[in-house]
Design brief:
- The structure is a single chain.
- The protein has 12 helices and 21 strands.
- The chain is α/β, with parallel strands linked by helices.
- Strands 1, 2, 3, 4, 5, 6, 17 and 18 form an 8-stranded mixed beta sheet that branches. Strands 7-16-8-9-12 form a 5-stranded parallel beta sheet, covered by helices on one side. A 3-stranded antiparallel beta sheet has the order 13-14-15, with no helix packed on it.
- A hairpin with a 3-residue loop joins strand 14 and strand 15 (328-330).
- Helix 1 runs parallel beside helix 10.
- The radius of gyration is 23 Å and the shape is globular.
- The chain starts with 5 loop residues before the first strand and ends in a 7-residue tail after the last strand.
């Protein structure tokens, strides 16, 4: 007879996994295990430790609503404080004994006879669970550029997501490829110490002023006053909502993107002295086509005499530097700020996944486009739930996503427990209805302007879709607690069980 090792296995020990585990415990689900291939918790904030790494939205929004910290050193907390916050949550909620580090899941197969998942790890071990929660995130697996000769570079090569803290950049000639969010943070940090920094830009990024400041003791004390955290979080959440979800998904109805573009161009004029450099840094696509950055010192870095902005396409990497069409730029160190595998094959999820009758999730998505009911479940993959599934994230704080998706998952798990169901599977018609709905909302989004074709945005998947949830954060939160549970089938062999009792 087939058995299960745990009722629930959570794959990932970043904030998604931590938030799901806390919610499980509070709901009375104690038989779970968290697995992660790292040697510590934090996910993004465990892997990304490059100079200048910090959160890109105010810290008051980038935290759990039920565990709000008052000791942030800045409005935009540095990465080490986010890592410490993850560690403190793990200890506060008693999760550490339930985590198995150094465990890389390479495959998961659904055993239909026993209504369980069997997970295989890189070391050949097997784990089984009734339910699997995928919390693998999207900002942990580096994406390497496909540039000829990159393996021939004789100097030191480092990706921002795997920073080498033994690397001394003082007096070095450094080349950095990429001008996305990671580059915007690391470039101002390293420019003052290197001999020369050459920045290779494919697409300029919208860079807006960052309302950042140190949090002095009186400000942190004020957060502890009655209502202090609530008011501050409300202001922060409103700011985050206006600057991305509303601007991106309601572009045709709200003028926020146009206002943001004017602010971004004014910021560029103030920061960069050379008109020619300023022209190179000016985006030719609408604000919102790709995620903007917020920085008060990135653009000004190009005023330095030891910094060169190169916009000619890279033709190859040589042993001694980076070659463009007519110039070779010598370098001792090559920094790859080329981002992550996000909504693409090999990252959603990070392992081979086979559902009913061996259905392959990656192949199914290739044939049917990325889709998931409410961003959580896919038909044909019973007892499997994702925190960061297609059309789950709307661009606000990841913490609102985590809490919303976990609320959805817990409603399913509670129903399964109350009815004795051993299999929970979203109905195909419910998934299709949700997919039609998100596609129908495209007309109002910023992504479908003509200029977005020039943005080189990771938002667009290989099908040409943007699998972000086209809704406000309030709508997503409401739906996570009110979707119709009859959109799922709750069954136990050998007969279906009733799914009429709301939980």
């Amino acid at each position: 007879m087939s058995t299960i090792d745990h009722e629930i296995i959570i794959v990932g020990a970043g904030f998604s996994g931590i938030g799901a585990a806390i919610a499980l415990r509070e709901a009375g689900f104690e038989d779970f295990l968290m697995v992660d291939d790292a040697d510590g918790v934090g996910g993004t904030w465990h892997w990304n430790t490059y100079p200048g790494v910090a959160v890109d939205i105010p810290s008051f929004s980038y935290q759990f609503s039920f565990d709000q910290r008052t000791e942030w050193s800045r409005v935009y907390a540095p990465g080490r404080e986010l890592k410490a916050y993850a560690e403190s949550c793990v200890d506060k909620y008693g999760l550490r004994p339930r985590i198995r580090f150094g465990t890389t899941v390479v495959a998961a197969d659904f055993d239909a006879d026993a209504d369980r998942w069997v997970l295989r790890t890189a070391d050949g071990a097997e784990l089984s669970a009734r339910f699997v929660l995928s919390a693998t995130g999207v900002l942990t697996r580096p994406k390497l550029p496909d540039i000829p000769g990159i393996e021939t570079f004789a100097g030191t090569t480092v990706h921002t997501a795997r920073w080498d803290h033994g690397l001394d950049l003082r007096g070095k000639r450094v080349a950095i490829i990429g001008t996305g969010a990671s580059a915007v943070q690391v470039i101002p940090e390293i420019a003052p110490v290197v001999e020369h920094l050459t920045v290779f830009q494919r697409t300029p990024i919208w860079c807006l002023p960052r309302p950042d400041a140190p949090m002095p003791p009186p400000a942190r004390w004020a957060l502890r006053l009655p209502g202090g955290r609530t008011i501050t979080r409300l202001i922060s959440q409103t700011y985050v909502e206006i600057t991305f979800p509303l601007a991106a998904h309601y572009h045709r109805s709200l003028p926020t993107a146009a206002i943001g573009e004017r602010a971004g161009l004014a910021h560029l004029r103030r920061q960069v002295k050379d008109p020619a450099v300023r022209a190179k840094l000016t985006p030719n696509y609408a604000l919102g086509c790709k995620r903007p950055s917020f920085s008060n010192d990135y653009l000004a870095t190009y005023n330095r005499t030891n910094v060169t902005l190169e916009t000619a396409p890279i033709t190859e990497i040589t042993a001694t530097g980076v070659r463009t069409e007519d110039t070779e730029h010598p370098a001792d160190v090559l920094i790859l700020a080329t981002g992550f595998k996000v909504m693409e094959s090999g990252n959603m999820p990070t392992y081979d996944l086979h559902g009913v009758d061996g259905l392959d999730l990656e192949k199914w998505w290739d044939e049917n486009r990325l889709q998931a009911y409410e961003g959580v479940s896919v038909p044909g993959f019973p007892n499997y739930f994702s925190i960061m599934g297609p059309y789950g994230y709307n661009g606000a704080s990841y913490f609102t996503l985590i809490e919303n998706q976990t609320r959805h998952i817990l409603r399913c798990l509670r129903r399964a427990r109350s009815t004795g169901a051993t299999r929970v599977e979203v109905r195909r018609e419910a998934n299709d209805r949700f997919f039609r709905e998100v596609l129908a909302r495209r007309g109002g989004q910023v992504f479908w302007q003509d200029s977005c074709a020039d943005a080189n945005s990771y938002y667009f998947d290989k099908h040409g879709d943007v699998p972000l949830r086209p809704s406000s954060t309030l709508e997503a939160a409401w739906r996570s607690g009110h979707f119709d549970l009859s959109d799922y089938m709750f069954t136990a062999a050998p007969r279906p069980l009733s799914a009429t009792v709301e939980t």
